[in-house]
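Structure in, sequence out. Go:
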C-alpha cells in the first residue's frame, strides 16, 4: 500500500522529527514518502499535494497545534475519495482513543504511543493480510459496512467497532531507530536552510511527573547510545541550519552524559551553530556549573521550566523545586555571560490565583534571565490535571490547544490581563532591545515590583487601544516614552537609558524625534577624524589596515557629559550585539581640539 506520512508544522522554520523517524524505520520495506506543510498554508494546496502522490494510506502526525486543521484536511480527502485510508499518530491522539475515533468517523486507524515499531508491524500485517489484533499500539475501526460511502459511514458510526490493541512495550534499544534525517535527498535541502531549526533527541521520556505534562506519562527515561548521538551530531553540525533543538524532556537528567554531549558539540561545532536544551536548573551540581563556566559564548541556550513559586501549587502539580538552588544556579550561569537562559512560568495552575501569580512573576522576573516566557495552562488528555479538572473547577477551550479559560482560583478577566502582560514582556523584555530602560524603570520607580510595572503599562496600552494595532520596534520606543511622560517619570535619565537602548540596537536607524536629533549631528566631525585615527582603529576594531573603511560600523552619541562609542558586533548574539565605550579620555589623549 503506497503510504504518505504528513506533518503540519506550526512554522516554516520547524521540522517534524516524528515522520522522519517513521520513514527511516519503515521505508526499506514499503513504498513510503513524507510531505511537510505548515498550518499557515492554504488547505487546497495541501490536499492537492497529498492527492498528487496517489497514496492509499495517509498518516498524519498530530499535535495540539495542528489537530483541528488535520480534521479539516481529512474531511476533504475522504469526501473526495472514501476509499482512502487515514491513520493518525502523535500525542494528540494517544489518549481517550475510543471517544476520539467515535467522534471522528473518518479516521480508520490510530497508532498510539511511540510509533516506529507499531507502524512497521501494521504495514506488514496489511501487506500479508494478517489479523490487525496482533499489532500492539494500534487502534482500528471495524465499520458496519466495509465499502460504505461517506454518508453511510457517518450514519453507521454508532455501530462501528473500535478495537484498541495492547500498548507497545517501549523497553527496546533506541539505537534500532535509524538516523531520522535523509541526507542523500531532499531533506538535505530543507535542513540546510539557514532559517531552519533541526529537532533532535538523544533520549526519550522524563524522570519527572509534572501533572500538566504529557511527558510525565512515560514511566522511564531511555537514551540513545553516546556513540550514536555523536555520530548523528557530526552530520547535523555540518548543515547550515540556524539551530539544533534537542527535544529531550530533561537534557540534564544524567549530568555526566549531558556534559559529554556538550563537550562533543563544542569540539565539533566549527560553524558555531546555536544549540537549545530543556533543562532542570535546581539539579545542576557544582561540577556541572564549573563545566558550564567554560562553555563558549552564545553557543548554548537553556530553557528552564519554573512554572510557579507557590508551594501549594508545586505540590499539587508534583514538582519538587529547590528554589534556593535554582536561584543560585541561574545567578551563576548569568555571571558566566555565555549561556542564553529562558525561564518559563505557567498561569492557570491549581491554587495559583492572580495575587499568587504576581509573586511567582516577580520572583522569576527579578532573576533577569534572558527571556521570561509566560505560558497558559493547557489541559492535555492523559495528564493528572485532565483527571482533576473537577477538583479545581478548571474550564478550558473545547478545541485544541485546550487552553484554560478560568478555574477556582483565577477568573477569565484575570487570565486576559495576564495575556496582555505576556505580550508586553515579550515585546519589551525578551529581545533585550529595552534592557537598560526596563532596568532603570524597575529600580527607580517600581522598587523591583516588575509585575506592577507591566500591569500599569498594560492598562496604558489598553486605554490607548495600542493592542489593536501592529507596531514596529521604532514605535515601541515611542510608546514607552509616551507612557513615561503620561506617568510623570520622563526624567533625563529615563531618556538617556532609552537613547542608549535605541542606539545599541539600531546600527543604521536615524535617531527618533523623541531624542535630540542634534546629538549625533554634533559629533559628526569627531566621527570622521577618529575613523581615520590609527590608534582608534586598532583599539576599538583591532584593525591596522588603513584602507579598511569603518565610518559606518560605529556610532557616537552624547549621553549626559559622556561621549559613547557604539561598535556593532553579532546581531544574533544578545550578549554582544553591540559594545559600548566611554571615549572622553581617548579623545583627550589624541588631543581632539574641537568643542563637543
Ligand atoms: S514539565 Fe518538563 S520536567 Fe515536568 S514532566 Fe514534563 S518534561 Fe518532565
Amino acid at each position: 500500500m503506497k503510504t504518505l506520512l504528513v506533518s503540519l508544522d506550526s512554522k516554516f522554520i520547524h521540522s517534524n522529527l516524528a515522520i522522519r523517524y517513521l520513514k527511516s524505520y519503515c521505508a526499506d520495506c514499503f513504498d513510503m514518502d513524507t510531505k511537510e506543510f505548515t498550518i499557515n498554508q492554504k488547505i487546497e494546496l495541501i490536499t492537492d499535494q497529498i492527492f498528487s502522490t496517489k497514496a492509499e494510506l495517509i498518516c498524519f502526525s498530530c499535535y495540539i497545534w495542528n489537530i483541528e486543521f488535520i480534521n479539516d484536511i481529512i474531511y476533504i480527502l475522504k469526501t473526495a475519495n472514501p476509499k482512502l485510508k487515514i491513520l493518525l499518530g502523535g500525542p494528540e491522539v494517544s489518549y481517550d482513543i475510543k471517544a476520539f475515533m467515535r467522534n471522528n468517523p473518518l479516521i480508520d486507524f490510530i497508532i498510539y504511543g511511540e510509533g516506529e515499531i507499531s507502524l512497521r508491524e501494521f504495514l506488514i500485517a496489511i501487506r500479508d493480510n494478517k489479523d490487525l489484533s496482533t499489532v500492539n499500539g494500534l487502534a482500528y475501526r471495524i465499520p458496519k459496512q466495509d465499502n460504505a460511502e461517506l454518508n453511510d459511514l457517518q450514519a453507521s458510526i454508532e455501530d462501528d467497532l473500535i478495537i484498541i490493541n495492547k500498548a507497545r512495550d517501549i523497553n527496546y534499544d533506541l539505537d534500532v531507530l535509524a538516523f531520522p534525517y535523509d541526507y542523500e535527498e531532499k531533506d538535505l535541502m530543507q535542513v540546510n536552510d539557514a532559517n531552519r531549526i533541526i529537532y533532535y533527541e538523544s533520549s526519550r521520556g522524563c524522570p519527572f511527573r509534572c501533572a500538566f505534562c504529557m511527558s510525565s506519562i512515560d514511566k522511564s527515561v531511555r537514551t540513545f547510545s553516546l556513540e550514536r548521538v555523536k555520530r548523528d551530531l557530526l552530520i547535523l553540525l555540518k548543515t547550515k541550519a540556524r539551530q539544533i533543538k534537542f527535544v529531550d524532556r530533561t537534557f540534564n537528567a544524567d549530568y555526566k552524559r549531558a556534559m559529554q554531549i556538550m563537550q562533543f558539540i563544542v569540539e565539533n561545532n566549527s560553524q558555531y551553530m546555536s544549540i537549545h536544551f530543556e533543562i532542570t536548573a535546581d539539579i545542576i551540581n557544582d561540577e556541572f556549573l564549573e563545566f558550564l563556566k567554560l562553555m563558549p559564548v552564545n553557543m548554548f541556550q537553556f530553557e528552564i521550566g519554573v512554572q510557579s513559586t507557590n508551594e501549594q501549587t508545586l505540590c499539587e502539580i508534583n514538582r519538587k523545586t529547590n528554589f534556593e538552588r535554582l536561584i543560585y544556579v541561574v545567578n551563576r550561569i548569568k555571571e558566566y555571560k555565555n549561556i542564553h537562559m529562558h525561564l518559563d512560568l505557567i498561569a492557570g495552575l491549581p491554587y495559583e490565583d492572580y495575587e499568587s501569580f504576581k509573586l511567582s512573576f516577580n520572583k522569576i522576573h527579578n532573576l533577569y534571565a534572558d527571556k521570561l516566557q509566560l505560558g497558559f495552562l493547557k489541559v492535555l488528555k492523559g495528564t493528572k490535571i485532565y483527571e482533576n479538572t473537577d477538583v479545581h473547577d478548571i474550564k478550558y477551550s473545547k478545541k485544541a490547544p485546550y487552553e484554560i479559560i478560568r478555574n477556582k482560583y483565577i477568573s477569565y478577566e484575570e487570565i486576559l490581563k495576564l495575556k496582555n502582560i505576556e505580550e508586553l514582556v515579550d515585546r519589551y523584555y525578551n529581545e533585550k532591545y529595552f534592557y537598560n530602560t526596563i532596568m532603570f524603570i524597575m529600580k527607580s520607580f517600581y522598587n523591583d515590583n516588575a509585575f506592577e510595572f507591566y500591569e500599569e503599562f498594560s492598562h496604558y496600552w489598553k486605554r490607548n487601544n495600542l493592542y489593536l494595532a501592529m507596531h514596529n520596534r521604532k514605535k515601541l520606543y515611542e510608546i514607552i516614552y509616551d507612557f513615561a511622560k503620561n506617568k510623570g517619570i520622563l526624567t533625563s535619565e529615563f531618556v538617556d537609558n532609552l537613547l542608549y537602548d535605541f542606539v545599541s540596537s539600531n546600527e543604521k536607524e536615524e535617531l527618533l524625534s523623541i531624542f535630540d536629533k542634534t546629538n549625533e549631528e554634533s559629533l559628526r566631525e569627531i566621527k570622521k577624524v577618529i575613523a581615520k585615527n590609527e590608534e582608534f582603529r586598532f583599539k576599538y576594531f583591532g584593525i591596522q589596515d588603513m584602507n579598511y573603511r569603518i565610518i559606518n560600523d560605529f556610532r557616537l552619541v552624547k549621553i549626559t557629559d559622556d561621549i559613547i562609542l557604539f561598535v556593532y558586533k553579532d546581531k544574533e548574539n544578545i550578549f554582544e550585539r553591540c559594545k559600548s565605550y566611554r571615549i572622553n579620555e581617548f579623545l583627550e589623549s589624541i588631543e581632539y581640539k574641537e568643542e563637543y
